[in-house]
Specification:
7 strands, three-stranded antiparallel β-sheet, alpha+beta, 20% strand, 6 helices
């Protein structure tokens, strides 16, 4: 499936970027002579196209793939919203509210299975004096490591969607990936 999409985009004169093979671009020119790049971002079963004339690309993709006709209002959990800036420029924005709400609900469900719950009120996402490099709690087992890394990934996407208020905490936790206990390390070798 991925190879067919790559072939289709190549036939439409898009080329993958060196930084990310799922981000494709091609040079384009608006009617007024303005030069820019059209972009296609592929993620699992989602295709996001950014172009002044995106229907040309989407119709080209539709020759090989059946696309949903639904109005797209969500991308990777973020709500998409068309807006107009103060100077009158029309653009798209991504809102994090629905994504963050779903992420918290998922954590609450996981905790409730373990007989735990989130604190009802927190002033900050992480204790102000917390220093992960000095944390001497027991190391996580393999399933704990995976869950920790999933949570950090969820938080990193929330920051990308605009939740910059937790950027410091997420960056701090990202620099200290969870460790496995020595017994788990031996078992996986």
């Amino acid at each position: 499936m991925r190879a067919l999409l790559a072939e289709t985009l190549y036939d439409l004169n898009y080329r993958p970027t060196k930084a990310d093979p799922d981000l494709w671009l091609r040079p384009a020119v608006k009617l007024d002579g303005f030069e820019y790049y059209e972009l296609v971002l592929c993620y699992v079963a989602d295709v996001l196209c950014m172009s002044h004339n995106l229907m040309k690309t989407m119709k080209g993709i539709q020759r090989s793939f059946k696309l949903k006709d639904d109005k797209i209002d969500t991308y990777l959990g973020a709500r998409l919203l068309k807006m107009t800036t103060a100077n009158g420029t029309v653009c798209w924005s991504m809102l994090s509210e629905a994504y963050c709400k779903a992420a918290v609900e998922n954590v609450e469900q996981k905790l409730s299975k373990d007989g735990k719950r989130l604190p009802s009120k927190c002033d900050t996402p992480m204790k102000l004096a917390y220093r992960p490099e000095l944390d001497n709690k027991a190391e996580l087992k393999a399933e704990g490591v995976q869950y920790y890394q999933e949570l950090v990934g969820v938080l990193r996407w929330a920051v990308e969607l605009g939740r910059v208020d937790v950027l410091y905490e997420v960056a701090t936790m990202s620099t200290h990936p969870a460790m496995r206990s020595p017994d788990d390390r031996r078992a996986s070798i």
